[in-house]
Amino acid sequence: MSSISIIGLGGMARAIAARAVEGGNAVEVIGRDAAKAKDLAAALGGGATAGTFGTVPAGDIVVLAVPYASAVPVVAQYGDALAGKVVIDVSNTFNADATGLVTPEGTSGAQEIARAVRASAHVVRASSSPVLPYNSNEGCTT
């Protein structure tokens, strides 16, 4: 069993948290809106908890499930609280109509996030796609 903290309260966060709870993992959900975090933790069941935004996440694994535009500012705000954690980036770096990327040329979203976290944190890029459903395996071929 792993301990997983998920920063974000949107659809990706909910889907990942639900799968993690179903797998028997300890799950903490964190968001700027404490009431929404508590509601999501209650809806997930399985002992899921709501953490406090900006404090040290309980999980050894931290899933960053926020829009890409917020990702670097969020990890910068967490600062030393992410030291020693594995940070999984699931943000989407496509522009609004999915015709291009919003990251600077020659870099990636994960690289930008890795530059913003403390050196002892380990950033891992997870797959995310604007065309695949994130709440179901139905029709998913990848």
Plain-language structure description:
The protein is an alpha/beta fold and 142 residues long. It has a single domain (3-125), classed as NAD(P)-binding Rossmann-like Domain (Rossmann fold). The chain contains four helices and six strands. The protein has helices at 11-22, 34-44, 68-78, 109-116, and strands at 3-7, 26-30, 49-50, 61-64, 86-89, 122-125. Strand 1, helix 1 (11-22) and strand 2 form a beta-alpha-beta unit. The longest helix has 12 residues, at 11-22. The chain is globular.
Quick recap of the structure?
This protein has 142 residues and is of the alpha/beta class. It has 4 helices and 6 strands.
Task: Kindly name the structural category.
Answer: alpha/beta
> Shape from CA axes?
globular
Radius of gyration: 15 Å
Domain tally: 1
Under CATH, the topology can be stated as Rossmann fold
Count all strands and give the number.
Answer: 6
Provide the CATH architecture.
3-Layer(aba) Sandwich
Q: How would you spell out the order of helices and strands? A: EHEHEEHEHE
Largest sheet: 6 strands, parallel
**What is the rounded distance between the termini?**
25 Å
How large is the share of residues in beta strands? 15-25%
Quickly name the level 1 CATH class. Answer: Alpha Beta
CATH level 4 superfamily: NAD(P)-binding Rossmann-like Domain
Catalogue the unreliable spans: 131-142
**Averaging pLDDT over every residue, what do you get?**
86
